[in-house]
Amino acid sequence: MKSIAPVGPLNRQVVSSIVRRAIDRAGIDAPSCGAHLLRHSAATQMLAHGATLEQIGSILRHANINTTAIYAKVDTTLLEGVAAAWPEHNLSVETEPPKWEFVSGELS
Question: In what residue span(s) does the Tyr recombinase domain sit (predicted)?
Answer without folding.
Answer: 1-84
